[in-house]
Amino acid sequence: MVALSRFDGLGAIASLLYPPVCVICAANIRAGEHLCDQCGAKTVRIRAPFCQKCSEPFEGAIIGPFSCANCAHRTIHFDAAVAAYRSRGIVRRIIHDFKYGRQIYLRHLVGRWMCAALDDSRICDRRFDLIIPVPLHPARQRERGFNQASLLAELLSARTSIQSKPLLERIRYTTTQTALDRSERMENLHNAFRLRKNMNMRDLRVLLIDDVLTTGSTLNECARILKGAGAISVHAVTAARG
């Protein structure tokens, strides 16, 4: 597991020795920021109209709530999956560097994007009992050194005072989802997750956390397990939507 306190300590020392710069273009920025105003303006927020179930954005004059064809033709177990930004350009690069480049400090920027989703009308007035991160298989977590969803869940827990617990575990090592289509992703994830032993989900309202929503298959499978264990509702929040 990555020693986060050590990384944070080194970052604090570096901030004293060097002025903060934009992680994209290296322009000088304000303390506590990661992007300059120009690069920040290139990130794309998800705005209506979008699918009420999976946040897939659409062009055109669509009035009122609607569900996309992707959700209409399969069983959706989460109540809604809310994403704040489009996973493209700078947003995609930042998340990639955070996950695969071991740029752990970027969790604060990704976490800020994720927290922006909390203002969405689908979840802003709801009460949640528990935050649960999407798990990695132990082998993949050892390889990466951390679970990005767990780090983001911890940040969200600190922001909302809702307890975060890793109640799900990934029991089957799956191939990467990146190159798979929706049906292949669903098959790839079948029976990949389970609830940890002696965990009681009955009557709980869950906020499920991951970094990016692509087809929603991972979140959907996790929500299926949680609801099968007795959860009343499962809403998902991610920083970005692919």
Oligomeric form: single chain
Task: Please provide the count of β strands.
Answer: 6
Helix content: 25-40%
> Could you say which overall geometry the principal axes of the C-alpha atoms support?
globular
Structural class: alpha/beta
In whole angstroms, the N-to-C terminal distance is 27 Å
Query: Major beta sheet, specifics?
Result: 4 strands, parallel
- Please state the average pLDDT score: 89
Strand neighbour order, sheet with most strands: 1-6-5-2
- In angstroms, what is the radius of gyration? 18 Å
Low-confidence stretches: none
Task: Please specify the SSE layout and strand pairing.
Blueprint: H1 4-17, H2 37-40, H3 69-72, E1 80-86, H4 89-100, H5 107-116, E2 130-133, H6 138-144, H7 148-160, E3 168-170, H8 182-189, E4 193-195, E5 205-213, H9 217-228, E6 233-241
Parallel strand pairs: 1-6, 2-5, 5-6
Antiparallel strand pairs: 3-4
